[in-house]
Design a protein that fits this description.
Elements: E1 2-6, H1 14-23, E2 28-34, E3 53-57, E4 60-63, H2 67-79, E5 86-93, H3 105-115, E6 120-126, H4 140-155, E7 168-175, E8 185-187, E9 193-195, E10 199-203, E11 209-213, E12 217-220, H5 227-232, E13 236-242, H6 248-258
Parallel strand pairs: 1-2, 1-5, 2-4, 5-6, 6-7, 8-13
Antiparallel strand pairs: 3-4, 7-13, 9-12, 10-11
Length: 264
């Protein structure tokens, strides 16, 4: 089995190195990740300037672009005509729950692979926003071990290889606790997280205004069965995400009421 491993926290982040150590036990792994942190960059491609890929050590490459760029460059330059069997993105330093998946560079790398017809898994560690986090104390090993379990169960390795539904990727979020304390992996739908929309306005030394975008986290909508609720209870959440974001039920309702085409 051949795996392309990406992230958005950079090729130097601890999470991707921990995940690499776990994945290399079950597959041939190549790491292609941004040279600099690209968190919350969403699903973007670099098309207005050239990209560079640097070999940092055996099986580890840094790219001057974002997560989705890494998927394209990594596949074209390291895998040739035969695509990897799986693209894994992570381990993200922080959860990707609810609407986070639209902003997340981690999820965007997995989504880009899915667009290319390659099975994909995004992996994130749900750290507590209100605590100071030493990298060495974060439980990346828990998320990595859970990722291996998900791969074996839903994607398979070697002769046990399986396929995900077309246009579907997996989003795994692990609680930041020791593996033995995780209550299990639970299927969950997307929840909703609350963030302040605060914009901080400042003035530089030349008297010009500048802004910091990004408010604080204020909890999640309390609904059972969501990824937010599941992780809060000490479970890992596993959500199959589709490329098709159409609200099919609403579209059918309108078509039944108004017809397939609205006359002008």
């Amino acid at each position: 089995m051949r795996i392309l491993l990406c992230n958005d926290d950079s090729v130097h982040a601890r999470g991707i190195h921990v995940l690499y150590e776990h994945l290399k036990k079950i597959a041939d792994v190549r790491v292609v990740a941004p040279l600099e942190e690209k968190s919350t960059t969403g699903h973007s491609l670099t098309i207005h300037k050239p990209l560079r890929m640097l070999k940092l050590r055996e099986n580890f490459y840094g790219v001057s672009g974002g997560p989705a760029d890494c998927v394209h460059v990594g596949i074209s330059q390291l895998f040739g005509k035969k695509k990897p069997d799986l693209v894994v993105s992570g381990i993200n330093r922080g959860a990707n729950l609810g609407q986070d998946v639209f902003y997340s560079g981690t999820v965007s790398a997995a989504r880009e692979a899915c667009i290319m017809g390659i099975p994909a898994l995004a992996v994130s560690l749900a750290i507590d926003f209100y605590k100071h986090h030493s990298e060495e104390k974060l439980h990346y090993e828990t998320a990595a071990a859970l990722a291996v379990k998900v791969i074996k169960k839903f994607i398979g390795t070697g002769k046990t290889k399986k396929t995900l539904p077309h246009g579907t990727l997996l989003n795994l979020n692990s609680p930041d606790i020791p593996l033995k304390k995780v209550k299990g992996i639970t299927f969950a739908r997307q929840g909703f997280r609350h963030y302040s929309a605060k914009i901080l306005k400042r003035r530089d030394h030349r008297g010009k205004d500048y802004f910091w975008v990004g408010g604080g986290y204020h909890g999640f909508l309390k609904e059972e069965g969501t990824d937010c609720h599941v992780v809060d209870r000490g479970y890992a959440s596993l959500s199959p995400l589709r490329l098709d974001t159409t609200h099919h039920e609403q579209m059918i309702e309108w078509m039944e009421e108004l017809g397939e085409t609205i006359s002008l």
